[in-house]
Fold this sequence. Notes:
The protein has helices at residues 12-21, 77-89, 100-105; strands spanning 3-8, 26-34, 37-43, 49-55, 69-72, 106-110, 116-120. With 125 residues, the chain is α/β, with parallel strands linked by helices.
Amino acid sequence: MHFRYARHTAKLENLIYFYTAVLDFKILGKFENHDGYFGVFLGKEGENWHLEFTQNSEAPKHQFDDDDYLVFYPETSDEYNKILENLKKFEVPILEPKNPYWKDNGICFEDCEHYKIVVSSLKIS
């Protein structure tokens, strides 16, 4: 089974920059003006998941709370440390997550639309 998380945005270019620069995701595909939608697929090559961000003339109507996270599990300490370096380089503030589990087992920060992301320190080889 493959997984795609799709989210509508008014900041498509900002999100592309954030996820490729900070999390080192790759652009796996793009589309332009498909029934008025523009979009991008971001993720890691060879994985069975990716993020899709779409934009059109309508403003997004997001509703999320402090317990909503995208959680990523780096497979190596090099990958984890690279994300930490990128967070410092791009001056992305580290946040204290509401859920204490993530405080003990990862780092929390927000993307440019204030969606929370956790990069877990678990399962690193």
